[in-house]
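Internal tracking record. Fields below are filled automatically when a chain is submitted to the structure queue. Please do not edit lines marked as system-generated. If the sequence contains nonstandard residues, flag them in the REMARKS field before resubmitting.
Queue: standard
Priority: normal
Entity type: single polypeptide chain
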Amino acid sequence: MAESQPMNREGAGGKSFNWRFVTGRVLAVLAGAIFVYAGVLKMRDPLQFANDVSNYRILPWPVGVRLAFYLPWLEILCGLALIFHRAFAGALAITGALIFIFIGATIWAKIQGIDVACGCFGTASSNLTLTWHLVINSSILAVLILLWFTRKPLDPAAQIHDS
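SYSTEM-GENERATED OUTPUT FOLLOWS
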């Protein structure tokens, strides 16, 4: 009777394929793309985004307007940093904090009885319910937390072999 052999994960040249690395990169690119997309939608209509921020009744109008012009660019830059793995830890920290703040502001508005359009994805998210906003934002936050705890410097040569 032949002995069973463990599955060979080695590819051409005896190098193993690192699924953990690939999965992390795919999640980082996905999260980055979401932030770039959201930032571009907000950047295209900053006054509408300022209205969305104002509807939460947390910040005074002048602060909300400044935030509406600044925040989309921050989201775009952080999204690009996640995609291209540059300043990765900083981008993860900033996007994680932003999502945490978005979730808190949404819950606070609901507790106050304020019916708000999220503004997360511009007018594209105006028809989503509070539950869907929380599910989407919580999922993004979970991916960012996973990326935070599994991050390593991007060194493809070191990532070829499993540790």
